[in-house]
Amino acid sequence: MRADLHMHSTASDGVLAPMELMRRAAAAGVELIALTDHDCIDGLEQARATALAEGMAWVSGVELSAQWQSRTLHILGYGFDPQDGDFQQALSEVRHGRWRRAEQIADKLAEKNMPGALAGAIEQQRLAGADEDSPPARPHFADWLVASGYVADRGAAFQKWLGAGKLGDIRQHWPTLDTVVGQIRAAGGIAVIAHPWQYGFSRSQLRKLLRAFAEAGGRGIEVVNGKQPVEQVAYLGKLSRELGFLVSCGSDFHNPDSPWMALGQMTALPPDCQPLWQDEAFNAAPGRCG
């Protein structure tokens, strides 16, 4: 089965609306799909209806931010009930935090004689077709910086103003790893740790993280993220077998101009691992259909 269980729409920091994203994924040959916007499930209903109409199997998805040992992690939730009240409340609290962060980014840019960033980022978000009630993310600020003539392109915006360690890199206090995994499970879902190679941990630190994730109730590892190098995939697959995790894969699609993250085009899963979609609990989850 060709599964793509990690992608982003205009509901967070992607550039395609949920319906268009699903149509492109179907055209790319995807058979099982999840929309996993950052701390947001606003696009799920449109995406679900389109995915099923296009003949794809569907599972509800989200990419939640979490903290572990003062580091920010991303946890993918699958199969949860999107109507679960407690889960919706948890997402609402994170959304408020994202609005505060957007305001802080705008304040920092104003201090560098670049006023109007928040309104500008919201306008860029609107032009991209996103819900204006959602907090603008750093890519929207980057697009405003480009449109306003402060930088040449989005890459330059991150390199100079918004990337790691720059003034727009505002650290938000995310819920703990245990809290986030618990929220996903309480809503009937399964927790998978996203792109573990990207956190920059040593191999011993990565093992420590994965053991903590398992103790919290995490079930899987995203061993393939886009066109990830085969040697990294093989090592993560080895860890999944050793620690008893299911494995998942996703393009982490944001933008059609990025070939590294093409829909449905990922490095192959290791053959000796158990995919998430072969798990009974995954297929019985309330957010799984088709």
Question: Can you walk me through this structure?
Answer:
The protein is α/β, with parallel strands linked by helices and 290 residues long. It has a domain at 3-90 and 190-289: Metal-dependent hydrolases (TIM Barrel), CATH 3.20.20.140. The chain contains ten helices and nine strands. The chain has helices spanning 18-27, 44-53, 85-111, 117-127, 138-147, 154-162, 177-186, 203-216, 230-243, 280-283, and strands at residues 3-4, 32-33, 57-59, 61-68, 71-78, 190-193, 220-225, 246-250, 288-289. A five-stranded mixed sheet has the order 4-5-6-7-8. The protein has a four-stranded mixed sheet with strand order 1-2-3-9, with helices on one face. Helix 1 packs parallel to helix 2 (44-53) and helix 5 crosses helix 6 (154-162). The longest helix has 27 residues, at 85-111. The protein starts with a strand and ends with a strand. 47% of the residues are buried.
Summarize the topology.
Blueprint: E1 3-4, H1 18-27, E2 32-33, H2 44-53, E3 57-59, E4 61-68, E5 71-78, H3 85-111, H4 117-127, H5 138-147, H6 154-162, H7 177-186, E6 190-193, H8 203-216, E7 220-225, H9 230-243, E8 246-250, H10 280-283, E9 288-289
Parallel strand pairs: 1-2, 2-3, 6-7, 7-8
Antiparallel strand pairs: 3-9, 4-5, 5-6
Helix pairs in contact: 1-2, 4-5, 5-6
Largest sheet: 5 strands, mixed
- With strands numbered from the N-terminus, the spatial order across the biggest sheet is 4-5-6-7-8
Beta strand count: 9
Looking at CATH, which topology of the domain at 3-90 and 190-289 would you report? Answer: TIM Barrel
> What is the typical, i.e. mean, pLDDT?
95
Task: Report the helical percentage.
Answer: 40-55%
CA-CA gap between termini = 13 Å
Radius of gyration of CA atoms, rounded to a whole number: 18 Å
Strand content: 5-15%
Query: What structural category characterises the helix and strand content?
Result: alpha/beta
Q: In CATH terms, what is the architecture of the domain at 3-90 and 190-289? A: Alpha-Beta Barrel
Q: Give, in order, the helices and strands.
A: EHEHEEEHHHHHEHEHEHE
CATH superfamily descriptor of the domain at 3-90 and 190-289 = Metal-dependent hydrolases
Helical segment count: 10
Q: What does the overall shape look like?
A: globular
Residue windows where pLDDT falls under 50 for at least 5 positions: none
